[in-house]
Amino acid sequence: MPAPDAQPPALRGDAVEGVLFDIDDTLVDLEQAMGHTLQAIPDPALSHLGDDDWVRYKALYTTDPQRHYDRFLAGELTFEEQRVHRIRHARAGFTPEPFLGRVAEAWVRAYEQLLPQHVRAYDDVVPLLDALDARGIPYGAVSNNVHDYQRAKLDRAGLRRIRVLVGIDTVGVAKPDPGIYREGARLIGATPSRTLYVGDNRLIDAVGARDAGLIGVWLDRAGTGRQHGTDSGSATAVPVGAVGDAGESAREGAPTAAPEVPRIGGLADVLQFLPSVR
Fold it and tell me: How far apart are CA 14 and CA 81, in angstroms?
């Protein structure tokens, strides 16, 4: 786990009044859930895959190198269509069997049924929420997905205690529009300039929150200093009625330059930004 980057003056002392979180791959390990789901779906055409093949297959789907999720965000594909395009691309590297019609429909149904069974919170989430409760600091989540879908995901992950949740249908905009972060701060009763926003996407979460007047913090769990986020850079195009996993646009990009926002390696590092227990 990397040492947190130097914190700016705004994070010292008792400045933080509240904390907001991204959900996918910040609170909930969606990438792992997707990987387990892919391997759990019966697919005779992939029965020959070895362990290394499965790693590559799952990476092709979760990282979405052809950016089909971005096409969904832009309104070019439905949510179901982007999933089909992504899995078709991943399968093409391992089998000549076509992925069309009823085969694709059955796969999508199986994926939708199995994915919730694999949703888990990261191990560092509950200890941090306990610490926030002990300090009397309110918290919530802001997501680039609709409220009810993400509410069900948090509940499935054992995070019902996160009562405040802002989805793209709450205010009609998506990250990085300033309005969605500010609504989260309003709902937890914190001043935006004293609200910490933590997320795994440097640009959409940390920089977006900072530009909205909050204190943006980049959660770099891998410790690589490389962009690896679950929200697309085209997030402003998210349809307000969209339903699905905003986290499914995860991908790695080029190494980032010197951070413009604080970078942490795990949620335990959030404690350094908070006032001590009173």
Answer: 47
Q: Are 24 and 33 in contact (CB under 8 A)?
A: no
Give the residue from 243, 246, 250 showing the smallest Cα distance to 78: 243
Answer whether the bond into residue 176 is a cis peptide, omega within 30°.
Answer: yes
Cα angle for residues 257, 263, 269 (degrees, 5° grid) = 165
Contacts of residue 177, Cβ cutoff 8 Å, sequence gap at least 6: 236
CB neighbourhood size of 28 (10 A) = 28
* Cβ atoms within 10 Å, residue 128: 22
How many Cα atoms sit within 13 Å of 150 on the Cβ side?
Answer: 30
Instruction: Assess contact for 183 and 212: CB atoms under 8 A.
Output: no
| Mean pLDDT, the chain, whole residue set | 84
Cα 36 to chain centroid distance, Å, stands at 17
Amino acid identity, position 181? Y
Distance of CA 106 to the CA centre of its chain: 26
Amino acid (one-letter) located at 79: F
CA distance 126 to 154: 12
pLDDT (tens digit per residue) in 135-177: 999 999 999 888 998 999 999 999 999 999 999 889 988 899 9
What percentage of the chain carries pLDDT values higher than 70?
A: 81
Q: In what order do the strands lie in the sheet with 215-219?
A: 164-166, 139-142, 18-21, 195-199, 215-219, 263-264
Instruction: Say what the pTM is.
Output: 0.83
